[in-house]
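Example 3.2
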Amino acid sequence: MSAREPQEMAQVAAETGAKKVHRTWDRVLVSAFLAGAYIAFGGLVAITVSSGLNPATWGTLPTLFMGAAFTLGLVLVVIAGSDLATGNMMLVPLSAMRGKISLADVVRNLTLVLVGNLIGALFVAYFLAVQTGVIGHSGASGNAGLTYERLAGIAQAKATGESHWQVFLRAVGCNWLVCLAVWMSLAAKSVSGKILAIFFPIMAFVAMGFDHVVANMFFIPAAIWAGVPQIGWGDALLNWLFAGVGNLVGAVVFVATSYWYLFLKDQPDEVTAAEEPPERA
């Protein structure tokens, strides 16, 4: 089965964005909860596999391991099917540019999906990361202690180590890559092809230390609940604000608008409802 060409990918993306809006609010919320949990699972496994590796010995390789493991999150979102705000930031505005939905539809969908993503990420952070003891506490021994130290370093850097301007710019770069992963997954018609399309952009953004608002909805609360010092909920909210705005800019400006202009502007609508695949991201 051949891959889709970019023109067809653009048509499918616009149809997918419209389909995401035309659902009841409760289905959107449940779907978004799952996506938030899936990204949190990716974050948790990424912390686990990259903990205990001394930079003096390993250099920057831990970030590569972390990025490779984190790809699990978007693989689950796309293959299992759920609504992730960062992917919707590209798909839903693209559908609006195509005239299939309104700006109000875009705002409602992204707001509801962000709320659902937050609930899902917080659920995994509290119950499955902290309460299970997978992430330990200060002074803990063994794997739990190593995982705590790794989480503390990541969360402190994101919550207090980066300026707001840096968070915004890192978030722009992050969602440019995340949306490219979603975009390229539309080219593939097999599960293996979609996973391959997702892997490299996601691995790259994590390895470079960029900011993903939903991932940060896991990292920073998990650190707060694990007792990492000098991080509070005010730090979390500010990070989410600037990361969310940056993610939106990266998605809308560099992916949705660019590919709308290249492949959809002044072009006829060639994809029918019968041809629309069940893509979700």
